[in-house]
Design a protein that fits this description.
Layout lengths: L1 E7 L5 H15 L6 E7 L11 H9 L16 H4 L2 E4 L2 H10 L7 E4 H6 L13 H23 L2
Parallel strand pairs: 1-2, 1-3, 3-4
Helix pairs in contact: 1-6, 2-6
The structure holds 4-nitrophenyl phosphate.
Length: 154
């Protein structure tokens, strides 16, 4: 069993998609029971809120339901609950490394770095349009499939 936490800034746009798409693709691949997945934000401004409606709509267009997720901020305990904590961009990774209690269990890494070996950010779509949310979705699909392939074979 591998526990993965996906982390962006607000936990309302990118990481809810990363969580929902990963869960959906893992289930489709028949390995859903091998993973525990969750998402959180570096900041807590949107804690308690559902994902941004543009993320919800984008996921729905692809047959993925994320509307029942609830935003929350990363906690120190997360670093012992998860095996892998993936920041959606490099700012998120920096912030996670600053928060990580010394000696904790989780490995912190960049999402697209871990999935695809590309040291690239998933761009923040918050001030963008639906096209930007579709682009996030497409990145999450490619990244999820690569992560699932690697992690399910170990
Ligand atoms: P996310 O997007 O990090 O992908 O959830 C954002 C959501 C909210 C804000 C920034 C980015 N904000 O500034 O409130």
């Amino acid at each position: 069993m591998t526990a993965i936490l996906f982390v962006c800034l607000g936990n309302i746009c990118r990481s809810p998609l990363a969580e929902g798409v990963f869960r959906h693709r893992a289930e489709q691949a028949g390995v859903g029971d091998r993973f525990i997945v969750d998402s959180a934000g570096c900041g807590g401004w949107h804690a308690g809120e559902p994902p941004d409606r543009r993320s919800v709509l984008t996921a729905e267009r692809h047959g993925v339901s994320i509307h029942d997720q609830v935003a929350r901020q990363v906690t120190r305990a997360d670093f012992d609950r998860f095996d892998l904590i993936l920041g959606l961009d490099r700012d998120n990774v920096r912030s996670l490394l600053n928060t990580a209690p010394p000696g904790s269990r989780a490995r912190v890494a960049l999402y697209l770095g871990e999935a695809l070996g590309q040291q690239k950010d998933v761009p923040d779509p918050y001030y963008g349009g639906m096209k930007d949310f579709e682009a996030v979705y497409a990145l999450c699909e490619t990244a999820s499939d690569a992560l699932i392939k690697t992690l399910a074979s170990t």
